Amino acid sequence: MGLNLDLLGKKSDPVPYECNEDKLILYALGIGAGVEKELDFLYEKNLKVFPTFAVIPYFPAVGILMVNSGINMFATLHGEQHIKWFAPTPTRGTLLNTAVWTKVYDKGDSGAMLHMQVDTTDDKGNLIFQNNMVAVDRSAGNFGGDRGPKTAKLMPPEGKAPDFSVNYTTGPNQAALYRLSGDYNPLHIEPEFAAMGGFDRPILHGLCTLGYTGRAILHSVCGSDPARMKALSCRFTGVVFPGDTLTIEGWQLEPGKYTFQTKTQDGRVVLGNALAEVA
Fold first, then answer.
1. pTM of the entire structure?
2. Catalytic annotation, pick one of 32, 106, 188, 217
3. Mutual orientation of helices 21-30 and 206-221 as an angle, nearest 10°?
């Protein structure tokens, strides 16, 4: 079929998302939050919103854009995620999500790298957060496009101990729970579909791993205050299975900026090249 390059730079119509307390609490449970230490994120009385909930309202809009772009979903990997926050996420109301395909790079035999942006506003037009994602369609390279710039590598400072380290163990049903927030890809629930992708069992959503990572950063360097999270970017570098233990480590580069990594119990880095900006 090939990529529909005519869509480049064209904004979509706004896609509405109805936000409410139940959806916020379901997301919090999906990224492992517990009532013992995180009751404010699980109880509607004085509900707080995990900043990484930002990946939920944007998902339908970017999904429509990916389908219309002609991307081969069976050959596509989620490469990177970048989030910026501009205002507190409301606990109730309509959020409007406008998507645009901003760039595409031809990586030859490695595929095509698509950059997509979704701006999320409230119903008055105030920008709440912005998601930029990179998807790699491994089947769509060699179309004659620009190869693009080399991606800068962001590594932990050599020889320096992390400024924070947090361990979370995901549950065996974590993917089954997280998918109820809106990502129903059968790769995360159906063994036969996972086998088609080369996995011996369903894998955890990359954005669920990002949610666990965001929790660790929020509690470690933001005093559990969502308003202090300003930006988060990362590259997905490995697969997580439900039941894996995640270790999130962060290193302060300068005041308000941390690089971080997330590893599994066997030492594999599954989320890296990462930067968090906090107030």
1. 0.95
2. 188
3. 90
